[in-house]
Amino acid sequence: MTSETLGRRVRSGVSHTLLIIVAIAFLGPLVYAVSTSLKPADEVFTPTPHLFGSEIRWQNYADAFTFAPFGRYFLNSLFVAVAGTAVVVIASSLSAYAFARLQFRGREQLFVLFLGTLMVPQEVLIVPMYWLMQSLGWVDSYWALILPWAFTAFGTFLLRQFFLTVPAELEEAARVDGCGPFRSFLRIMLPLARPAIAVLTVFTFISFWGSFLWPLIIVNSVTDKGTVPLGLAQFVGQQGTQWNLMMAASILAMVPTVLLVILLQKHLVRGLLVTGLGGR
Amino acid sequence: MATDTTTVAPPGLPSKADRVGRRPALRRDGRFAGIFLAPSLGGLALFTLFPTAMALAISLFDWPVFGERKFLGIDNYTQLLNDPVFRRVVLNTALFVVLYVPLNLVVSLGLAVWVGPKIKGRQAFRVLFFIPVMTPMVANVMVWRLLFQPGGLLDSGLESWFGINAPNFLGSSAWAMPAVVAMSIWQGFGYNFLVFSAALDQVPQSQLESAQIDGAGPLQRFRYVTWPMITPSIFFATTMTLITSFQVFVQPFILTQGGPGVATQTIVMYVYNQGWQFLTMGLASAAGWVLFVIIMAVTAIQFVGQRKWVQYDV
């Protein structure tokens, strides 16, 4: 072994160690949250930091559900996210197919219009959207939590890009055999597009799961229609916040998304567009 | 998946794929197209196009949540410009953007280059840094609120390990904004980290190696080989980060409630307060439109500026 390769090995070893230290520092806040979530209430604030309290209190996770109606919040969030995701996936796969495969006049212009809607930030839309919900009688309803943000051009864009990579010959053969566009879409395109649809599904679910500004505006009866982020935010600024219980609830809110990210790790890059501006 | 990385391009740019779609083989699909497009088109028209126009209309009215509406013309806009609070929240938002965007880009690009395409376990770093991007923002911010709290980890840690008497981060007008920025970078840099590491994967090792043989040091290799190839990703990341950072809301809302005073109140918080605390929808809508115009202007500047430094055909 020459001294040059030895030097390189030492350098890469040092660099690797430093990276791991950075990763641990990055994890610090999450470790702190888990640690706090397992402490007795009177040991959250101590003069010197301790990783563990005098006991490991798993009971905090159960107590969070009685301290506030987190059971209800979780069910609401789950329902809204699943229903919203279903609408997004159905509507965007249909329109993506039209843009990728069907010939019709004005297709390019319409697609530009679709992409143009991505430019409008949610903050511009919330005021008229609230008025629209008032007019429809949807304030404080599940409809209002699900539908307004379920028609985004992101899904259409993402799936159209995928559909375009599917060889047209596959469908042409079926069309020659008398297969109409609907059957061709259902039987050929959708099964082939399963990976792209999975990515869209997961990222849309996560964006509904975490959305905060709109539920904050549209939900009046938090204990009835509140979602998890709304439930968590209820306790901000209150005197005597039960931080150990709040951390337990926060961790529980994170767990599904962390699992989905790990599950989908190979496809994260494709989801970047959905997450980038879709945080509604 | 080699094709994955091609998604990392600004949306809306015509790609080769667009031309593939124009096949003459499938014709006379007009009536089917209508059915396929109906849900999305209807939804976008009702929930995006119509509200966008309505936002402009509402901004021209005295529009309380309940009660009489009155046409004002541009009065809401002049009132905004004369409102010292609104001027302050625009400055606060600009300060957040100016601190957050460069720091986010430096941290994410620096770490992406450091981790590099060759290191073992780089996938683990991608997943790890991406986690707070996906976890509910409110939950993330709750954790940081406890962290910054007097008696929280930062306070007690600084005191007992370094003997430093920490300030009340969230209650101090000097520290509140840096605290919001720090939290936001922790939360958000994993997105750009992923964008950049995907781009770095595409840089051919053979070119880096031949540059090394020609005697180029690591900095020169980065400047002359890597950088030109990743400029499209840098442009994409910068644009996306700029747009989202102007929309900052949850972090200050949960960490500081915009305080102390209005030291960390942002434009979106102002929209929320006007609309749902003071119930003046006209003013809220006008503030939303001002934000929209700012974002469009900054994005337009980005797109004009890109011609000078972004290289698409390397």
UniProtKB/TrEMBL annotation, chain A:
<feature type="transmembrane region" description="Helical">
    <location>
        <begin position="196"/>
        <end position="223"/>
    </location>
</feature>
<feature type="transmembrane region" description="Helical">
    <location>
        <begin position="73"/>
        <end position="98"/>
    </location>
</feature>
<keyword id="KW-1003">Cell membrane</keyword>
<keyword id="KW-0813">Transport</keyword>
<dbReference type="GO" id="GO:0005886">
    <property type="term" value="C:plasma membrane"/>
</dbReference>
<feature type="transmembrane region" description="Helical">
    <location>
        <begin position="110"/>
        <end position="130"/>
    </location>
</feature>
<dbReference type="GO" id="GO:0055085">
    <property type="term" value="P:transmembrane transport"/>
</dbReference>
<keyword id="KW-1133">Transmembrane helix</keyword>
<feature type="transmembrane region" description="Helical">
    <location>
        <begin position="243"/>
        <end position="264"/>
    </location>
</feature>
<dbReference type="InterPro" id="IPR035906">
    <property type="entry name" value="MetI-like_sf"/>
</dbReference>
<dbReference type="Pfam" id="PF00528">
    <property type="entry name" value="BPD_transp_1"/>
</dbReference>
<comment type="similarity">
    <text>Belongs to the binding-protein-dependent transport system permease family.</text>
</comment>
<keyword id="KW-0812">Transmembrane</keyword>
<feature type="transmembrane region" description="Helical">
    <location>
        <begin position="12"/>
        <end position="34"/>
    </location>
</feature>
<keyword id="KW-0472">Membrane</keyword>
<feature type="transmembrane region" description="Helical">
    <location>
        <begin position="142"/>
        <end position="159"/>
    </location>
</feature>
<protein>
    <submittedName>
        <fullName>Carbohydrate ABC transporter permease</fullName>
    </submittedName>
</protein>
<feature type="domain" description="ABC transmembrane type-1">
    <location>
        <begin position="74"/>
        <end position="264"/>
    </location>
</feature>
<dbReference type="InterPro" id="IPR000515">
    <property type="entry name" value="MetI-like"/>
</dbReference>
UniProtKB/TrEMBL annotation, chain B:
<keyword id="KW-0812">Transmembrane</keyword>
<dbReference type="InterPro" id="IPR051393">
    <property type="entry name" value="ABC_transporter_permease"/>
</dbReference>
<dbReference type="Pfam" id="PF00528">
    <property type="entry name" value="BPD_transp_1"/>
</dbReference>
<keyword id="KW-1003">Cell membrane</keyword>
<feature type="transmembrane region" description="Helical">
    <location>
        <begin position="278"/>
        <end position="301"/>
    </location>
</feature>
<keyword id="KW-0472">Membrane</keyword>
<feature type="region of interest" description="Disordered">
    <location>
        <begin position="1"/>
        <end position="20"/>
    </location>
</feature>
<keyword id="KW-1133">Transmembrane helix</keyword>
<dbReference type="GO" id="GO:0055085">
    <property type="term" value="P:transmembrane transport"/>
</dbReference>
<protein>
    <submittedName>
        <fullName>Sugar ABC transporter permease</fullName>
    </submittedName>
</protein>
<feature type="domain" description="ABC transmembrane type-1">
    <location>
        <begin position="90"/>
        <end position="302"/>
    </location>
</feature>
<feature type="transmembrane region" description="Helical">
    <location>
        <begin position="175"/>
        <end position="200"/>
    </location>
</feature>
<comment type="similarity">
    <text>Belongs to the binding-protein-dependent transport system permease family.</text>
</comment>
<dbReference type="InterPro" id="IPR000515">
    <property type="entry name" value="MetI-like"/>
</dbReference>
<feature type="transmembrane region" description="Helical">
    <location>
        <begin position="32"/>
        <end position="61"/>
    </location>
</feature>
<dbReference type="GO" id="GO:0005886">
    <property type="term" value="C:plasma membrane"/>
</dbReference>
<feature type="transmembrane region" description="Helical">
    <location>
        <begin position="89"/>
        <end position="115"/>
    </location>
</feature>
<dbReference type="InterPro" id="IPR035906">
    <property type="entry name" value="MetI-like_sf"/>
</dbReference>
<keyword id="KW-0813">Transport</keyword>
<feature type="transmembrane region" description="Helical">
    <location>
        <begin position="127"/>
        <end position="147"/>
    </location>
</feature>
<feature type="transmembrane region" description="Helical">
    <location>
        <begin position="229"/>
        <end position="250"/>
    </location>
</feature>
